[in-house]
């Protein structure tokens, strides 16, 4: 539950626990096969597992403040995203746990006969672009695999495909440069009998105006023309 942008957080407010309480099983979370991004309670402690596993879950009604939650066990097996929707539809959200008392309260609503882990509201976004909300990915087959549990940064190979790698390896890198775009509007009056809505005529005029711009030494521009009848 660190402050990193892809750290574990609670679904109800998508934020970290300000009090810092956590109750992971020893050596968890371990993100096996780089595919464990949702949290369960198992024997009163937490583990990260595959979000598409179908499991029972615990919802809560109440406030995000400690001690103000009523927990409810739902025995229907669902994947984490469906369990989240169910809790939000019928209760406040998937279980949020702020301290030891709340952890005990969640554990106490899970029937002792439950032989599997139980979803709680823990989740994380494993990969994010720094400084961008882009969701585009281009992973190589089998990647990311978090090999040896230490691959938390991404590289692009000569085949343009991505692989997760150890962040401490020294490698060449790409930087990002944002180009500023300027928009200019020019009003032209044409006297012509041609049909200006004809795509052929449209392209002819764009090409001729573009050629004039190039004659004047302009290199990087895009022309858009909107005919208006007078
Ligand atoms: Ca795990
Ligand atoms: Ca890898």
TrEMBL record:
Quote the SUPFAM superfamilies the UniProt record gives: C-type lectin-like
Pfam families for the chain:
Lectin_C (PF00059)
Q: Which UniProt keywords apply?
A: Disulfide bond
**Disulfide bond: is it a keyword of this entry?**
yes
Has the keyword Lipoprotein been applied to this entry? Answer: no
Residue stretches making up the C-type lectin domain: 6-60, 71-176
Q: Which InterPro entries match?
A: C-type_lectin-like, C-type_lectin-like/link_sf, C-type_lectin_CS, CTDL_fold
Q: What is this protein called?
A: C-type lectin domain-containing protein
Question: What is the organism field in this record?
Answer: Neogobius melanostomus
Which lineage ranks, top first, belong to the organism behind this chain?
Answer: Eukaryota, Metazoa, Chordata, Craniata, Vertebrata
